[in-house]
Amino acid sequence: MIEQAEVYVSTWLLSLNIGNWVANFAFMLCLTMILQLIWRYFAKRTENVISKTSNNWDDIVFYGVNKPINWVILLMGTSMSLRVVAESEDLVISDYLPVVQKVAILFIVGWVFWRLVYKAEHTYVADDAKDTTTVTALAKLAKLSIITIITLSIIQTLGVSISGVLAFGGMGGLIVGMAAKDLLSNLFGATMVYMDKPFKVGDWIRSPDKSIEGTVEEIGWRVTRIRTFDKRPIYVPNSLFTTIVVENPSRMTNRRIKENFGLRYKDIKQIEGIIKSVREMLENHPDIDQSQTLIVNFDLFNNSSLDFFIYTFTKTTNWVLFHEVKQDVLLKVADIVIQHDAEFAFPTRQLHLNKDDHKMLFNDNHKHESSQYDKYEKYEKPETVK
Questions:
Q1: Is the model's pLDDT at 323 over the cut of 90?
Q2: Which among 143, 234, 140 has a CA at the least distance from the CA of 191?
Q3: Contact of 143 with 122, CB cutoff 8 Å
Q4: N or C: which end of the chain has fewer CB within 10 A?
Q5: Burial class (CB in 10 A: 0-12, 13-18, 19+), 56
Q6: Residue 258: what are its φ and ψ, rounded to 5°?
Q7: What gap in Å lies between CA 122 and CA 139, rounded to an integer?
Q8: How many Cβ atoms sit within 10 Å of the Cβ of residue 47?
Q9: CB-based burial label for 55 (10 Å; 0-12, 13-18, 19+)
Q10: Is the pLDDT of residue 222 over 70?
Q11: Residue 305 and residue 265 in contact, taking contact as beta carbons nearer than 8 Å
Q12: Which residues contact 7 (CB under 8 A, 6 or more apart)?
């Protein structure tokens, strides 16, 4: 269609008999500049209109075609100018212009679709309500398809048989597949991650089988980039995710508070009241999920303490908020212990002696102290001079 328009315009210019090829060339350049100015004015007005709409697709489509249309106008103006000059002066370049124009148009078409995919990916990845992992996977697949289709179309435009290329690609693919089995296993692992969705970008994951823990930043076709909590990047081959256990704490429904407390043995009469008060406190706490398991019980006669424990779940899964709730619970437990005139235990030992042993120990100590005192007196007392 574009080629027919160029032929029509060039024939029209030659029929006007404006003058030599310099005048024709200058006229086409002026026409190209006018068309570009018209398009830029129209594009600016269109951008102002679509920026006020809530639909994302009008922004995506406009982003995809805005700059490519500028290049289409420039390409048409340049090719028409060259066609007019070539036909006026019988230049050899006129034989190659159609092929160059088709290749350039294919590049621009591929560029349009690439920009559409790029804008759609960034628009929906920025939307927290969307599955960013699926959006990223579809975008990568679309970009790969665009590159493949445009490349094959350009090869066919240049006169090379696509069937031969596909046959060679099939044999080459078999050879490359045998030589690059690790790369293919990583590709298969990425496909499984995209299909099964054990995690997505932004999730906190860990593996009990490997030293892997952090936040997923990117899921590529070969490796997945994970940022550890000390901000170091880890690049994990995707094939590893098909053989290890992956835990996704980001999808937990609650966070657990499980703590043990030790009271003194002299507070054994207060422990029942303390446990009852702690249970009532947890049952009335606004940040504790009452639909989950809640346990407060005396648990153990320990070496130097009477141990009881609490086992409950918070409503929030946020790491920072969880620790604020946990702090509040622990401080309230401490207040309850103080209100019942009890104290938390610390490691202690008591030594029990009978009466005779105590008297013997006292006499030995007294005798030892007396002997030490006598030595001291003997040493310190000066001799009397007669």
A1: yes
A2: 140
A3: no
A4: C
A5: middle
A6: -135, 105
A7: 10
A8: 13
A9: exposed
A10: yes
A11: yes
A12: 83
Residue 134, helix vs strand vs coil: helix
How far is residue 340 from each of residues 4, 277, 334, measured CA to CA in Å?
97, 10, 10
Task: Locate 162 and state its tokens.
Answer: 């696509």
The pair phi, psi for residue 313, each rounded to 5°, is -130, 140
Query: Could you report the per-residue pLDDT of 6-63, keeping only the tens digit for each?
Result: 555 555 555 544 445 666 667 777 877 888 888 888 888 888 888 777 777 878 888 8
pLDDT at res. 373: 47
The model carries a pTM of 0.54
Nearest to 131 by CA among 64, 192, 203: 203
Higher pLDDT, 256 or 209: 256
Token pair belonging to 185: 């296993």
Distance CA 340, CA 326 (A): 22
Query: What pLDDT was estimated at residue 376?
Result: 45
Arithmetic mean of pLDDT, 286-311: 92
- DSSP β-bridge partners for residue 261: 308
Instruction: Give the Cα separation of 319 and 326 in Å (integer).
Output: 11
- What is the overall mean pLDDT for the chain? 78
* C-alpha span between 314 and 291 (Å, rounded): 10
Give the three-state DSSP class for 364: helix
Q: Does domain 182-250 have CATH number 3.40.50.2300?
A: no
Q: What is the mean pLDDT of residues 304-308?
A: 92
Measured CA to CA, the distance from residue 30 to residue 10 in angstroms comes to: 15
Taking each continuous run of H as one helix and of E as one strand, the counts in the chain are 10, 7
User: Which helix (H) or strand (E) segment is 72 a member of?
Assistant: helix 57-89
CATH class of 252-339: alpha beta
